[in-house]
Design a protein that fits this description.
Oligomer: homotrimer
Strand content of chain A: 25-35%
Largest interface: A-C, 41 and 56 residues
Largest sheet of chain A: 12 strands, antiparallel
Order of helices and strands of chain A: EEHHHHEEEEHEEHHHEEEEEE
Number of helices of chain A: 8
Radius of gyration of chain A: 20 Å
Helix content of chain A: 10-25%
Structural class of chain A: alpha+beta
Distance between the termini of chain A: 52 Å
Number of strands of chain A: 14
Chain lengths: 354, 354, 354
């Protein structure tokens, strides 16, 4: 964790290196291909028909199968890591994450972040960095836009705080902001039998809880392959030698891996939720390690029509993922705290055909 | 194994849910790409030149490299699982599996099954379901057609049997039915050196036994990635938490994984068997678990010319796969029972250039 | 290790099977696709922008992203294994490895080797085979050319040596021979921020040492998937059953896996070294096993301008990889011997924009 021994090696940014309003063009643009899609499928086993079948996607209204929304998220997120969170102590949160344009195989993704908040912690050893990150495609269009905040170490405790501002971030994305990445859906051309579910938007009610039933065990090779695929360089995911004497004694799985697993599990009960339109917020409640089996359940927090659209509606979901604990009884809290099995508490919007 | 806690979650079909003649259009059409091919190659290391090289395939008579026949099988099979075998106690058998059209990367596969037989077991707790499953490409052509039977639990022991019929299935596919998925092969353009074997159809004799020599160890991450790639949702392959208190105490590897490993191993001795034209039957003699090393050997059961074709001939093979036991002495039976190392006994037809 | 029980099974070549001047057309041509690229990325997490982004590659001067040079090497190397090194006791060295033409996804690779040297060992049990191997693309152009020597068992100790010649091989590829696989680079169009490094050719000095900082742990599934992807059939990488009673008691990781890991790690400090132009030599100092964490550091051995080119310059690098030992103090020798943590000592040329 000391400064690297070579001036050519990137040490990442420390808290005092950030400035309010600073824009960071992240490295390593990435052409995402059908190869990445196959590997993503092999790792998560997703079954949403729009992302699985070009023919189904065309019949629904897409040009062909778009990338899984979370694959787009992970690739863009990965680019921000070397600049934003290489010296992070903790990933504290996301907010206002919106998917703005479908991304098809063959598209090259870039990412830019802007520092929108800074707040030194009272111990002077760390500070919180708030960034708004955007992913762009070849044409320069924004495909994803989200805010994130992380606690970052200072290089020197004596360095002055580089700024002080806590940005206001929305607790939830407004329904009017949803759907930019979803073409007009042909609800008649959308085939329920092929999609694997007869339940459409109107069939889901606020307060309804769904146990996604299945469990899936994570192996070290799997999360390492996934996280490298996104070119995410966070060391804690890959370096058993260092982590064996670290906080957990072992490699920590990238939080996004749990999100993708929960999303794939959610197919069983939400099979027509073909598009993840926005993430309102998320909390990685507990660390996830290889060997654990992930389960998930969801609650419908809200339903919303989209202004000017009668093809799709939005469900606001809270999906809870657990480790080594089935979710038939919807585990969540244990008194004021989370149930010790809970690892993820995710609040997001999905679109469903009407 | 009880009914799910949400009516949105698919419980799969129980024995009494099936009807004779029922047709099931399976969910999740799947566009299979060069990405899937790469992952399949990484998992099995297949070396048949037709599937490895577009140039070789063109020179032989294909448009380009077709998908490995077993990849087509696994993808189609995977689609049938949520409807047919989610509540299966045992996969009992396959028969009459014919590959009918080459499948190239970019093709979207669908699957439909018809219930062709039902037979309740005397304990009234389970019954045998016979289905004929067909995989279709974008144009609606059948690319694979096979029968399969599984023992499925009843939801309620008191429910009446939904039918009683045991279909007649052929013990072997007739040679006249072979080869629909194989274009006319240019036997002069087919280069033995590049293919890796100088032995063609006429060089194999009935009764000949071939030890495929090599062994390959299976890891948990590998079979999970493979089985998810096929969108096969059988829980026993993925859920260590549940299986730790299950029949084996651990995850069971998808039987098709053993078939693909045996087929890849069989290259050493059968390098010109470029097309798996039909599966006559197969038995998963014993369960396979991660950490085991698979070996295989084959016997030539029959040779056959194909009516009207002088480009290729068919070999009927019996391939035996073992775990943690080399096959130099062709292990098979131990008295009336199988040798305890045997895990797979597969009867199938391959095509070879003449 | 005895002769196979079937005459159809390839036993590989033994020392006495080789002849000076013999040319071997290797089996299994291979069309390398974006699927292979994705899997390579997932396994190594490479971040060189030219290979990651079609757009970046085009702006730099390529047609699109070429394959990672080491992926080309591994695929060509894999083809040579069944003929050259299936009965090898040890891989002794490489020399004069030059990358001669960019390889893009969709290209089909073939390989041919020529026996350029033979030398029986005094124990009469083994001999050293020197081959020059070349990889070709669809058009028949050579894309890679390298020499390699391996110690191969004799089938019969009494067999006479098939020849005696030790070829002269260059200790290093001359700068004038570098760059054939690198198009003219538009150094203005090459964007340092996107590439992830502000350091170009002129910023590196002879004698400079760079610790690549990060460590990456290897899992069994990962190296098996990689090595099968290259259709490398060396048994020691895959067969835990046999190796459990072998030299190491476990599977040995393909040496090329360590090279690819070291190359990926070297991005941190050498981010603009976008092309591996030549390998002068390499030594696998110690075996690598799953579970180990790889670290790496590099020294600049030389810098060179390329005759007639002012777009790129060449750095001759010595990259040392270690297992379970960080490289902040540049571990190399321990007296006359290598530091016990060192597993790889690689001498090669990379190109950087000027």
């Amino acid at each position: 964790m000391s400064a690297p021994s070579s001036p050519k090696t990137s040490p990442g940014n420390f808290f005092e290196d950030f400035r309010l309003g600073q824009k960071i063009r992240h490295a390593t643009p990435r052409t995402v291909t059908v190869g990445d899609v196959a590997l993503y499928n092999g790792l998560f086993g997703s079954r949403f028909a729009v992302q699985s079948s070009d023919t189904f996607a065309k019949n629904a209204g897409y040009l062909r199968s778009p990338l899984d929304d979370l694959l787009v998220f992970h690739v863009v997120f990965g680019k921000t890591v070397p600049d934003v969170s290489l010296n992070a102590v903790a990933n504290l949160g996301y907010a206002d994450c919106r998917f703005l344009k479908p991304v098809y195989p063959g598209v090259t993704l870039n990412a830019v972040s802007e520092v929108i908040g800074l707040r030194e912690n009272s111990n002077k050893k760390t500070g919180i960095v708030y960034v708004r990150s955007r992913g762009f495609d070849d044409t320069g269009d924004v495909v994803i836009d989200y805010a994130r905040w992380v606690m970052v170490r200072k290089r020197n405790e004596g360095a002055p705080a580089p700024g002080e501002k806590v940005p206001e971030l929305p607790k939830t994305v407004e329904p009017a902001q949803l759907g930019a990445a979803c073409p007009k859906i042909d609800t008649a051309g959308y085939d329920n039998a092929l999609a694997g579910s007869s339940h459409r938007f109107a069939d889901y009610k606020v307060g309804e809880k769904i146990d996604h039933v299945d469990g899936i065990t994570v192996e070290e090779a799997e999360h390492q392959i996934a996280t490298r695929l996104y070119q995410n360089t966070a060391r804690i995911h890959f370096n058993q030698f260092a982590e064996s004497s670290g906080r957990f004694g072992r490699r920590l799985i990238y939080g996004g891996h749990a999100i993708s697993l929960a999303r794939a599990l959610s197919f069983n009960g939400l099979g027509n939720a073909f598009h993840l339109a926005a993430i309102n917020g998320g909390r990685h409640v507990a660390p996830l390690f290889a060997g654990c089996t992930i389960f998930a359940w969801s609650e419908i927090l809200a339903t919303a029509e989209l202004p000017g659209r009668n093809d799709v509606g939005a469900l606001r979901l809270r999906t809870i993922a657990t480790k080594d604990r089935p979710c038939a009884d919807f585990p969540l809290k244990d008194g004021d705290d989370y149930d010790p099995a809970v690892i993820l508490d995710l609040d997001y919007w999905v679109l469903m055909p009407r």
